[in-house]
Every structure is written in C-alpha cells, then in structure tokens.
Amino acid sequence: MIDQIAQDIHRQGWSYQQNVVDKSRLATMAPMFEAEFSPAGVGSEKQRVEEIRGDWIKWLDPLHPPGALEQEIEFLRDLQNEFNQRFYLGLQDFECHLAKYPPGSFYKKHVDRLAKDSSRSISFIFYLHQEWNEADGGELVLYNKDDEIIKSILPLPGSMIIFLSEDFPHEVKVCSRERRSLTGWMHTKILT
Predict the structure, then answer these.
(1) What is the set of domains in the chain, with CATH numbers?
(2) How far is CA 24 from the centre of its chain?
(3) pLDDT string in tens for the chain (192-residue length)
(4) DSSP per-residue codes, 101-160
(5) 60, β-bridge pairs
(6) Sign of the dihedral through C-alpha 121, 144, 40, 172
(7) CA nearest 137: which of 167, 179, 174, 97?
(8) Which residue in 128, 133, 130, 151 sits closest to 141, CA to CA?
(9) How far is 23 from 122, CA to CA, in rounded Å?
(10) Can you name the residues that pair with 15 across neighbouring β-strands?
(11) Among 143, 188, 181, which residue's Cα sits nearest to residue 57?
(12) Which of 11, 56, 82, 83 has the most CB atoms at less than 10 Å from its CB?
C-alpha cells in the first residue's frame, strides 16, 4: 500500500486508500473519542470561529501514541521514510490529533500550510468511525489551485486520504452523524 500511495503522490499529489485500518480495530478505538476534546481553532492563533469550523480535537504525542493507534503511527513513520527516499522532501517530524465533527458541523475551504510556518508538507486523515453511508455527508472535497473540484471523498470507515498540504485547498461538508478521524501533517522541521 505504501508503494501505491507514493505512486499516487508522484502522479497527482494525493492518494485515497480504503481498508487501511481494519474494521475490527475501529471498535477498539471508539473509547478514545469519549475523552475530553477541545474546540478546534483557526490559523496559528487557534481562535475558535464556528462559522469556519465546528470540529473538536485532542492533540496526540506521536512519540507516545495511545496503544490503539500504534499501528497507524508506525505506518505514518514508514510513509515519511518512503517519501523522503523517493521525493527528497526532507520530512523530519509529524503532528496529529483526534478530531470529531458533531452532527451539523463542517470545515470551510482552507489550505493546511500556514502563512507563518511553511513546514507542513503532507496532510493525512484516517477515518476512524465504525459506520458511514452517503446520507451521512461529511465528504472531504479536494480542489485544485483554480478552485475546481478534483475529488469528493466520502469518509468511509478505515479509509485514508493523504495529500500535498500546499497544493490542495479542501473542505469538510456538513455531516449528519459524528465523523471521527486521526488527522495530521508531516513537517520539514523537528517540532519537539
């Protein structure tokens, strides 16, 4: 799967893969989403602006991940190494958080690379809810730099999307059930 993701990144700048997280493991991850989460903010100041985004997050330490996420963190390390070997990206670290979107929430179109910090190079999202169907909404919509829709991705359980942070504006459409994910970014600098 890592080879396919790398080929997709080289060819089109993004990759969507299904069945990355085994569905039997999603149930073991559910208790992580019962912990205390904080309202997500916008920009480097992390201000809460509900007209822009309505998700709640819990930051994780990739060096000491929850046991239920050890496989995903190891997978991310392997991807980071592969990207560095193939594309010479100079990726040195990554950050991630759990995110949950309550019913009725969304995240308007944005780019993940911050204006004050250009080290975010690769964005990734693992979808960790146990069930999802088209009527639940919550699609991730990727745009090109000309504001044209490239792909609308239904957040199927256990799937993953990964893309070049600077190249793809994106948004999360309104969801009608709680949407859960592990979301993060690979950086070209050491964060800790």
Answers:
(1) 2-40+51-103+120-167 (2.60.120.620)
(2) 21
(3) 999 999 999 999 999 999 999 999 999 999 999 999 999 988 766 778 788 999 999 999 988 999 999 999 999 999 999 999 999 999 999 999 999 999 999 999 999 877 777 888 999 999 999 999 999 999 999 999 999 999 999 999 999 999 999 999 999 999 999 999 999 999 999 987
(4) E-TT--EEEE-SSBTTBTTEEEEEEEE--S---GGGB--EEEE-TTS-EEEEE---TT-E
(5) 96
(6) negative
(7) 174
(8) 151
(9) 25
(10) 162
(11) 181
(12) 83
Structure tokens at 35: 């912990």
Q: Which residue has the tokens 């085994």?
A: 22
Residue in this structure with the two tokens 């991850």, named with its chain if needed = 29
Structure tokens at 9: 């990144």
Reference 156, options 172, 174, 185, 179; nearest CA is: 179
Torsion 63-69-75-80 (CA) sign: negative
Q: How many CA atoms lie within 13 A of 3 on its CB side?
A: 0
Helix, coil or strand: residue 23: helix
Q: Please state whether the predicted TM-score (pTM) of the whole model is above 0.90.
A: yes
